[in-house]
């Protein structure tokens, strides 16, 4: 605590003055300072029998988390907060059907700062944050300072300074801060994790991750909703603005930031920026606010991460170009390759009775025996309960695990450092682009402790 001016820090965080520049990279500053608290890599808190949760942000994403949480045993919703009264009231009415325990729910809406009042008045055990990106860091930091565990949507933060502030606050307060990367709980992702752990494709060499999802239509959400704030990021941001859906799963296949390996450096390039400018001109009046923006961030961003073991990870991002959705989800090992979109597998020597060598993929109906053999135990245990929970069931498995870990006092499946490493691709890709593709070093948010952090086990 010696070098850590807590009062100043709280004041800064509470006011949301944490540096918002995506180019702010202050790894050396932070590394040279001792941690203000205790390392959180394998952190577990005491078990919570009845989990009292508050929700900030009830737009497109928040209501799904609310339903998935409130329908589990041992949970209680104590407060709902959004900028808009109708969002809060609609979800409050729905909540009555989910859970008879949540009868005394405090409701907050109306201005940017009501969530701060809510934290103080309600004192929840945990807070779910599903707001716009710029609010993530101030909200998770204040949540922890006010004594609750923070569960935040992706990305966890947008600058490396914010990420350090989050890590420092989590270590200082001994509160969980989980970035809720739901894709790590997809059936294919869980199965590939299981196969990697069993050594099916040998030693891991390379991975490919992406968020390629054409979302130009969101620009029609002009006054509220995702497009109303995300469109400004497309204009003002730089590099890969949404890296974690593709990267989270492959990072866990490779045990990144967990004992075996970690991200070391990244190089990044973007294409010209064409799609958003064109789309805006074609679909909106010349005086429309979207036509007053200059969409300068390249349509497709390609970054390559080098790890300490010398492995490579390709990370791509494109929310503009007309092409089918993909997260790539590819991991290549010394004995074979697992790939996504569509699911395909190749293995040296083939698979008995299906393929005799690795020169073609096993795909489609031929994959059935693989699911039988390698489906993750967690998927087998929970799929019948969670398959209608959103995004093919991954949202429900994630929420089930959050609640299960908190109730049992176990470490969460994703720690605060993983949220930071995966999100750091945004500011680091921006810095690489602004320096003509020069490699950027990842800050070590663990201060070397990743070497002592247990790999995520295969949860049964
Ligand atoms: N993991 C996934 O699959 C997934 C899917 C969609 C969105 N997301 C993430 O979820 C988050 C929310 O996205 P969305 O699409 O729901 O956006 P949205 O704009 O529909 O919802 C955000 C909500 O936050 C509220 N909000 C903003 N500032 C607030 C404040 N100061 N106090 C209280 N409420 C506030 C807004 O009123 C809005 O209703 C984003 O981080 C996004 O990246 C994740």
Care to give the gist of this entry?
By secondary structure, the chain is of the alpha/beta class. The chain has helices spanning 6-14, 27-32, 62-70, 85-98, 114-122, 133-145, 160-173, 187-197, 226-236, 244-253, 275-283, 368-374, 377-386, 394-408, 416-423, 425-434; strands at residues 51-56, 75-81, 106-108, 126-129, 149-152, 177-179, 204-212, 263-270, 301-307, 312-318, 330-333, 336-339, 344-347, 362-363, 440-441. Helix 6 links the parallel strand 4 and strand 5.
Jot down its keywords.
460 residues; alpha/beta; Rossmann fold; Dihydrodipicolinate Reductase, domain 2; 2 domains; 9-stranded mixed β-sheet; 6-stranded parallel β-sheet; 16 helices; 36% helix; disordered N terminus; binds nicotinamide-adenine-dinucleotide
Mind explaining what this structure looks like?
It is a single chain. This protein has 2 domains: 6-181, 3-Layer(aba) Sandwich (Rossmann fold); 184-452, 2-Layer Sandwich (Dihydrodipicolinate Reductase, domain 2), CATH 3.30.360. The chain has a 9-stranded mixed β-sheet. The protein has a 6-stranded parallel β-sheet with strand order 3-2-1-4-5-6, sandwiched between helices. The chain has helices at 6-14, 27-32, 62-70, 85-98, 114-122, 133-145, 160-173, 187-197, 226-236, 244-253, 275-283, 368-374, 377-386, 394-408, 416-423, 425-434, and strands spanning 51-56, 75-81, 106-108, 126-129, 149-152, 177-179, 204-212, 263-270, 301-307, 312-318, 330-333, 336-339, 344-347, 362-363, 440-441. α3 (62-70) crosses α14. The relative contact order is 0.17. The chain is built from 16 helices and 15 strands. The protein has 460 residues and is an alpha/beta fold. Bound molecules: nicotinamide-adenine-dinucleotide.
